Sequence to fold (285 residues):
Amino acid sequence: MTTREYDKSERVQLADEAVHWDLGSSQSYGEYLHLERLLSAQQPVSQEHNEMLFIIVHQVSELWMRLMLHELTAALNCVTRDDLDPALKMLARISRTQTQLLTVWDVLSTMTPFEYSAFRNELGRSSGFQSVQYRLLEFLFGNKNAEMVGVHKRDPQAFETLSRALAAPSFYDEVLRLLSRRGYGIPEDYLSRDFSEPYRASKQVAGAWLGVYHNADKGWDLYELAERMVDLDYNFQLWRAHHLKTVERIIGYKPGTGGTGGVSYLAKALELKFFPELWQIRTSM
Fold:
């Protein structure tokens, strides 16, 4: 068979397969993914070329956060059932997702201060600070702050969702309950505390985690859980650091559009850790 005959045969085969898929599928690729809605959601408010980049970067970030919430909620439910194998898989997936969120800042950092300032005023008071999903992630990980709920008073559904998440046990709260059920000494007031209050590190909790590490051969799943949690915390801190440096690169030390201090506000967030005892005990091991 000549090259021309082979190419013709291949084109005929591909055409036949295309017809087969067209006739045999109940819905198309675009219909399944709702691409018409998804790809029409980019609506710049200015005529500036670079605004499309700004919109897509933030929309993609929200989609990745959507997946993280899906996985973390399921992992929390597994922890409450003491079913750690699927939880470990879910946490590993979250870590991979976090690496995608990190690369988003690399794309956004291609925007110069001049390019951003050309449409920044059109954004009004809109800001990533107002992201409901980001706040849900923080609450679900364990960084509770009742003041952050008030930002969403004008959105009843978001306000209700965040209020429930604020009052509910976080992923870390459920992990500590699991440690208690496994015989590790978690203080009683940490198991039935007011979960809407910020978490405070505990020497007793740190001691329990040390016990997990020293008995890894007997409780390998708890040891693995601890290390997956450190991965999540570590990646979240990297995400915050990349966020800060990208903002600094693009707007310097100007205030954020949502009224925050911009870089100064983000710098404070670098000090936060979701699972503080897991970091504290590393000096003692």
About this structure: The chain has one domain: 48-283.
